[in-house]
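Archive transcription. Copying these from loose printouts into the bound notebook so they stop getting lost. Printout 1 of 2:
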Amino acid sequence: MIDYKRPDGQTVQGYLAEPTNTTGAPGVVVIQEWWGLDDEVKAVADRLAKAGYRALVPDLYRGKLALEAKEAEHLMGDLNFGDAASQDIRGAVQYLKATGSTKVAVTGFCMGGALTVLSACHVPEQDGTVVWYGYPPLEYVDAKAITKPMMAHWALHDEFFSIAGVDQLEAKLKQAGVNYQFERYDTKHAFANPKSAVRGLPPLEYNAQAAKLAWDRTLEFLKKNL
């Protein structure tokens, strides 16, 4: 765990995973699901570090973790999304750039996917975004402000973020001339999280095949843009 500064000067903690060779290594800010900064999102950061990236996960909940859906819903409901995107996430991008990463992307899952879309609009320092099955209310998406490439992975049978909303988001991006790549998978929400299989929530489904394909595409995107 490290401390870093937000643009407004407040201090935030985050989990930093470093690659073996940090010299000139690009960075990725990883945004949690609604559960908090848990072992699953740390494992994502570790995976990116093994692939050669400096990965930083901001602790958006300030140390709190949810073990069940009601707790997660409560913590997510208390989160100021605008502040998280423009301060916590932007500060994390700035930290990685100030400590040696020339280029930095943002990626996030579920709630973190929605925040990744917002960061594409509100974090000018980022160099690309990878969204995993999550988007904010579309009226908050200023597509004209998105100037860097975006990749997004969506589940066709997502009960939390409908594919109809994905289509509407895509139309907004297309109209604004955004450089984007949307991929749709024949599966359910949270398909890339192995813990989805043991959460006991029917709307969640781990799909190893879809997860591997999405990860392969993600690493290709990051290599190309960072």
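Printout 2 of 2:
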Amino acid sequence: MPRRSNPVPTYRLHRVTGQAVMTVKNTDGTRRDIYLGKYGTPESKAEYERLLTEIRTTPSVPITARTGGATVNECLVAFIRHAAVHYKGPDGKPTRELGEYRALVRLLRELYGHTPAASFGPLALKAVRQRLVESGLCRPLVNRRVGRGKRLFKWLASEELVPATTYQALATVSGLQKGRTPAPEPEPVRPASDADVVATLPFLPAAFAGMVELQRLSGMRPGEDCRINP
């Protein structure tokens, strides 16, 4: 029996050059080798994983290795320094948004850290999106993180760390639509029952209990309640 070809390109050693290499199939049926860097290094393995993600996401689109230029990692360091100053509350404490960006940055570093930031395009962003979907995140959360990725590159473009065309290309990636993606929908957030609220009131400090009662009677939001002055 003829040997069946492996649909997943393997990471292997190119003995002549000492580099890691993978063989991919072109759209016309021919094959070509893509060199990933020195065999066995974290950088070459990260490049291999990145290309596999792109193959799974858009199997009909030719992929290429990316070499040269300022790396995504270098740009992410600059952005996180900016974010640590920008995303602070009035009390000086980091906001939740900084934590969300840190989670996105970890994924970008894992998939594209050593690749040139200027060549990070729509297919790369879709590959990041696919990894988020595969991790089990709900559709709105995936869309929010992809949106943060676009804003991240918008800031990089404003600082001339990447060409403006890089951000403009990423802006063409649309969000996942309800019912047209394997990403699950979130559970609806329902209001607390009146019985639960009443049972909780005795355990709250007097000021907090008063705030809860005011919200029950007026329908105002917690933020509006907190901003009330004597």
